[in-house]
Amino acid sequence: MLNVNLNATNQSLVTPPSTTAAQESTLPEPVLTLLNDSTTLEAPYSPETLQTQLQQQKAAARSTADDPRNKESDISDSLLDAINQSAEDLSVLQGWTDGGSGMFNAANKVMFEALKEAVQSNDSTKKGFALEDLFQLAVIDFMANSASKTDQAMKDKLAHYLESTGSGSHGVHENWNGQKFADELQSVWDHIKTHAPENSLSKNILNYLETQAGGIDQLKIQYSTNFDARNGYAFRNNYDKENFGLSPMLRLAVMAKFLTKKPDIVQADLEKLMIGTFKEMEDMITKHFGSETVENLLTDGNSNDWQIINASGTTDKIVDWNGTGLDLQYFKDLYTKFPSRVLGDEDIKEINRIGDNVKMIQQTLKYWYHILRDERLSIARNI
């Protein structure tokens, strides 16, 4: 606890209004705004109100000078981490329920954490496909959040990585085979690395691949040597459904179709679609929709987007987007119009937990800032 020394001497002296105003003005404006705020925080909390209060708290905490002799700075530093954590928790929760790009990006972050574990597997096959999934996830995040400086030729390349790479999503379309993906990788990698913002998910994924997973060379080897491996083809009879899932792009497509049909899915079931094996995804879909399958949900009777076709001259099934590479308008619609999810009991409990933390931070900040204001007024009376 901060040791604040209150000088209460000569409390009976009357302080001129101008002196009071001068002393109060030494506190930063965001701190005064916080002190004068009369909002009552009580459960059940409104996410919008919590967001407003956290922004106000953060503004107050950041407004104080970074000075070890400054008591406001001591107070702010001690609580800023708690404010940031509550803001992050609330942002994630809203991402899971509000739909749109927030939910799309929240799902990508969950997949990233799961894939970081998968890429460290001792199973070389699992590791190889996790590498593909991680890079595809970097492409997804880049296209959703950072692609404004990308010309059409590069967008066409990125569209092929979205359509035909990653777990269960392999297929040769427009002559893009494994060697072609390996050959084009350097230019795509460099483009994302150059144009993605610092601390973006896409930049973080590339940094992780470079430092923890063998970098671009391992990914080139994966494309060039394992593109025909059975676990690249999710809808063939020999696919290992017990141990492999789907690429991030296909997961997002299935999630969007699922949420359109059932927006009241609980978080635990939603996570099966994000990080579960193919078998876990199918079991969860069957649980809610009976005879529905991953394939039916993905294609949804619409031959104008995702479809399962026979590879040229064979009866081997491959995933295909009806067009050249993945249609980028479909991709834009997917992340900007991602379906929302209805709040469940667990979500409400989480909102109330966050709300209790925000309330505690609010009370603590006001308590200490009131003490500092009163201390300065007391000192002013003695001048």
Spatial strand arrangement across the major sheet: 1-2
Percent range for β-strand residues: under 5%
Mean pLDDT over the residues? 86
Structural class, from secondary structure content? mainly alpha
Number of strands: 2
Query: Segments where pLDDT lies below 50 for 5+ residues?
Result: 1-25
In percent, how helical is the residue content? 55-70%
SSE series = HHHHHHHHHHHHHHEEHH
Region (Disordered): 1-29, 50-74
Biased composition (Basic and acidic residues): 64-74
Protein name: Molecular chaperone
Biased composition (Polar residues): 1-26
Describe this structure in words.
The protein is an all-alpha fold. It has two domains: 11-34 and 43-51 and 80-99 and 346-383; 101-336, no CATH class. 64% of the residues lie in helices and 3% in strands. It has 16 helices and two strands. The protein has helices at 17-25, 29-36, 47-62, 71-98, 100-118, 124-145, 152-164, 178-195, 201-212, 215-226, 248-261, 267-275, 278-289, 294-299, 328-336, 345-381; strands at 306-310, 317-321. Strands 1-2 form a two-stranded antiparallel ribbon. A hairpin with a 6-residue loop joins strand 1 (306-310) and strand 2. The longest helix has 37 residues, at 345-381. The radius of gyration is 27 Å and the shape is elongated. Mean pLDDT is 86; it is low at 1-25.
Topology (elements, then pairings):
Blueprint: H1 17-25, H2 29-36, H3 47-62, H4 71-98, H5 100-118, H6 124-145, H7 152-164, H8 178-195, H9 201-212, H10 215-226, H11 248-261, H12 267-275, H13 278-289, H14 294-299, E1 306-310, E2 317-321, H15 328-336, H16 345-381
Antiparallel strand pairs: 1-2
Helix pairs in contact: 1-16, 2-3, 3-4, 3-16, 4-5, 4-16, 5-6, 6-7, 6-9, 6-10, 7-8, 8-10, 11-12
